[in-house]
Write a structure and sequence with these properties.
Strand content: 15-25%
Helix content: 10-25%
Order of helices and strands: EHEHEE
CATH superfamily: Vaccinia Virus protein VP39
Distance between the termini: 22 Å
CATH topology: Rossmann fold
Strand order of the largest sheet: 1-2-4-3
């Protein structure tokens, strides 16, 4: 039988744009629908904080798939799903970003769909699962 055992949980509040030793050394981190709310010129700081300094064994990142926006009635081309989104990546742009992370920080990654996939436009959201040292 396979199972999980969690001995403690710790919740901390902070900013991912600044190094914070309180978030270093955890087993996993989840950035669920977070990165699209960060200014693009601050993404490099977030990448370093999460992947270089905190270095969790597993990082899960989800973000909207901009390609899929064409399926939403009433959305005009170029419109973002939420007023607070700073950007939304296409599947290709997300794949490029994920590849950059793996190349710079010693993680391996796989990309998975989130939600029902359209044959042409892909899923509504996309997820990268990063593992330090390889999958």
């Amino acid at each position: 039988m396979v199972g999980w055992s969690i001995s403690t949980s710790t919740i901390v509040q902070g900013a991912l744009t600044y190094r914070d030793k309180r978030i270093e050394g955890f087993d996993a981190a989840a950035l669920v629908e977070v990165i699209e709310h960060i200014e693009p010129d601050r993404l490099a700081s977030v990448e370093r904080v999460v992947f270089e300094f905190a270095k969790p064994a597993v990082v899960v990142v989800t973000t909207p798939n901009r390609d899929y926006n064409a399926k939403f009635e009433g959305m005009v081309p170029g419109q973002l799903r939420h007023a607070d989104h700073r950007f939304e990546w296409t599947r290709g742009e997300f794949q490029t970003w994920v590849g950059g992370i793996t190349g710079r920080f010693g993680y391996a990654a796989r990309i998975e769909p989130v939600g029902d996939e359209d044959e042409v436009l892909g899923p509504p959201s996309q997820m990268a699962i990063f593992e330090r040292g390889g999958l």
